[in-house]
Write the structure tokens for this entry.
Amino acid sequence: MSERHLIIDAIASHPWIERAWSAGDDAVVIQPRAETLAVRPALGPLVREHLEHWSEVYEWIYETSGAGQPADLDLSGWRASDTGEPLAREHMVEWIDRTVELVREGSPRVVLELGCGSGLLLRRLHAEAERYVGTDVSEVAVDRLRAAGLSGVSALVAAAHEIGSPEVTEALAGARPDCVLLNSVTQCFPGNDYLDAVVSDALELVSDGGRVIVGDFRHAGLADRYYRWLEPDDEAATRRAVADEEFVFDPRFLALIAARATRPVSISVRAKTMTADTELTRYRCDVVLHVSAEPAPPPSAVVWKTLAGDRLAAVRALAEAGAVVVNGIPNALLDDDPLGIEPHALRACLTGTGAIVGLDLDHPARLEVCPPTGVPAGEVSPHSAPVAGEPLARFVARRLPEVIRDHLRKIMPDAKPPTLTVANGRNPR
Ligand SMILES: C[S@@+](CC[C@H](N)C(=O)[O-])C[C@H]1O[C@@H](n2cnc3c(N)ncnc32)[C@H](O)[C@@H]1O
């Protein structure tokens, strides 16, 4: 057997490798086994490594910068993507206030927050709940929350996919949460399968009438605008897209997950409504999944551009009358249509009406005014497959060759290692 064949056999003998084949002089393509990339029934080793990468990132953030911050406003890690400078404190306080309002909408009694971090939300909400369980992959964050001794709070080290673990179940003390909260966490997820597993489990766990809130994630439908906003030209924007390590998805993917749940779920997609024009306000959104909520009658719809005179006054009057959707509202932060309006101005005109500022599921640069209950998830049109940027594929493309080179060095120390590439595909399976 030639040395080349011996090398390929040695590569294929690694337990994470399904197949390896020669691709030219010095190149070998490697295909990982499906189990190494799986989330269920057991977490694959490459998925585990991806999660560990993010837990190390946050462990470092909380250790290095968290120590000097006020306990109830530890903003370490909250930096602008273009300058790397901390985001303004007032902006972050408004971001927190809006999210706290969103959680309070459901008056939850038992909250399970996955990825609670330093407790920006937990510290403001726990006193209103009977029980608040916060989990995070960062030990530093969890230790600090425990040391704070907050009433009704249990904090524990667990990853989001461990939602059904004995530790989390014990912390809930037999209660089913009426709110499962994942705020600004999904960007660390490896991809669709992980999000699907976590959200499906959360939808199973939450009590009837309860809500799963997937908050503060970057909308995949706005990803190109985001890169172009950060960078002066198309080339730099493309580089930014290629280097993006965060998981970005479309809210319609959450609708697809919710439509498979064992109970009826409705979905409400919310625009961010902070006053400052930042990447958080422009490109992120919140999704509320209502489980077994009374299905609301489909509201009649009015198109923004057909409203005459003072549109905001007209919208307010419609919202006060209830059950009316106003749609097709250009988001002035993303669209230079002269009829555009900023989300915070829309929110201000709706105060006290019970209506919310939603995002159009099919046109994320358009706003809607609608009731907070949302639409049945099964009725959301999946007419175009929701796009998502899955970081796991990129991680595997980098990490698997490292692992295989180490393996080769051990079993064939004298062989010249080939150039390794992971088999192509959006998800390398
Ligand atoms: C940006 S912070 C958000 C914290 C908090 N939810 C908030 O809104 O202020 C993200 C947190 O998610 C945690 N995290 C990352 N990946 C996670 C995972 N797979 N499971 C649970 N927590 C995770 C990080 O350790 C970090 O504390």
